[in-house]
Each structure stands twice: as structure tokens, then as C-alpha cells.
Amino acid sequence: MMTKPTIGFIGLGLMGGNMVENLQNRGYEMVVMARKQDVLDAVLARGNARVASTPKEMAEACDIIMLCVTTSEVVESLVYGDDGILAGIKDGSVLIDFGTSIPESTRKIGVDLAAKGAGMVDAPLGRTPAHAKDGLLNIMAAGDETTFNKVKPVLDEQGENVFYLGALGAGHVTKLINNFMGMTTVTAMSQAFAVADRAGVDRAQLFDIMSAGPSNSPFMGFCKKYAVDGISDLGFSINNANKDLAYFLHMAADMGTRAEIAEGTSNNLQAAMDAGMGEGNVPEIFDYFMKLNR
């Protein structure tokens, strides 16, 4: 790219806010939307940024529109509303969805954008908000290859590892599989610590034994930090984990199959949410298992 594109960004939470700061530090002109005034003030204070009043206004002003929001439903509301992205998108512009969405929804949006001459890339993220601030995310990108190549220079400034996975939707498929594996692992390991405690086995000793073998993993470390050390720092809530498991199950059903292990994990996460634990990080499901009776 000879000149830097103007970038619109919706979803300035911990991850999105740090992504915007990274892009501003690299000289991109930003157009943003956020509900909280203090968040907007922080972006504007760094300069070379302005606020859009609607997604349509943002789409009319930007070459690339980036979303980092919570659900497919939110993405669709931003795209299809009366003042939505689809109503204002320019020919040749690209929409990038960094969130975790239902692949079927992503593909539908892609078709509707293509009818307006615009492209779409689904690019869910790995790693943490701290990595986002430094442009060191893992990015699982998919879409038409020409469209992907068009935005790859910007993705390279946001991610240390940018994976191209093929046709639109493949990024969200991969992310849902990744989160199914991760959240199932954390749930199982958390219950292992709880069962050990009930059996009179020292939790720290259990970790020493299990971590000396093939069960060792960063996820085990997160679970040990909470179940043994009382430190909760995975940074991914039970609410979000259960949302992603629901999307995984939705995807499996669309494929004509059933994911029974995911059903079990989802049942555990939902039970923890029903117990008022939804805002806690996923390893905190250990507390639910400690109280679980027949």
C-alpha cells in the first residue's frame, strides 16, 4: 500500500482499545465508535482520530472497518441496521471481524457485502490485550485471497503471527475449535483439582505430578494458579466461554453432527453461570466443582 488506509473500529474493550492504540502508534488515521466517553477521550487524545455517530457514517469514511465485538448478533446489528455498515460501505472497502462469530452468519454477511463491491475477512484473535497493544496477536484470517492480501499489511502490524486459512468463515471455524479445546481442557483440569481435594490429595502435589507428564500445558498452569495459588489471571470469562461453546455446538449441528464433549463442557459452564459465577475467569469454575454435590 502506497498510503495508509483510513480505518474504522467498533468495539473498544480491553482487546479492541489496545488494538486501536497500536494502530494509532503506527500512524493510521482512525474513525471510532464507543459507548463510554472516557474510552473515546483516550483515543482522541492520541490524535489523528475522530468519532463516527453511526456505523453507516463510519463505513462511508473508511477504507477498512474493523469489529471487535462480543457476539454474531451484535455484528449483524452493526451491519444490517438502518444506519448500518452495509448502508454506507464503499466499493472496494473491507470489513474485518476480529470477534468470535458463527461461521454461517459470517458467510451471509460476506455475500451481502460482495453485492455492494466490498470484501470481508474473518480474523479472530489469539493471545491477550497486552499483546494487542504491542501488535503481537495471533490472527486466524480467512476470506477471498485477494481481499486478504489487500489488508494483510495492516494485519501484519497487529499480529506477530497472521495465518491465512482459506475461504471466508474458516477463521471463525478454527477459533471455535480452538476455544472448544481450550475451555474443555480448563474445565476438566479444574474438576481434577476439586476431586483431588475431596479425596484428600494435596492440590499442589497433584500439579507437581501431572505437570511432570504429558498433561502439562499453559492451561494447566492457569488452573493451578487459581486452584492452588488463588490467582485468577486467564482473562477469559465463564460467560464468554459458554457463548463460544454454544457457537461451536451451533456449528456442529449445521454440519449434521453432534459434539457430546462440548455439550458436557457447556453444561458445566452454564451451571457455573446459573450459580452467579459468569463474570469470573474460566479457572474459577473450580469453586463450582468444590461445592458440587450429587
With helices defined by DSSP (H or I, 4 residues minimum), what is the helix count?
A: 14
Strand content: 5-15%
Spatial arrangement of strands, main beta sheet: 3-2-1-4-5-6
How much helix is in the residues? Answer: 40-55%
Q: Shape, please?
A: elongated
- Which structural class do you get from the secondary structure elements? alpha/beta
N-to-C order of helices and strands: EHEHEHEHHEHEEHEHEHHHHHH
- The separation of the N and C termini measures 62 Å
Biggest sheet layout: 6 strands, parallel
pLDDT < 50 stretches: none
Mean pLDDT: 96
Rg computed from alpha carbons, rounded to a whole number of angstroms = 20 Å
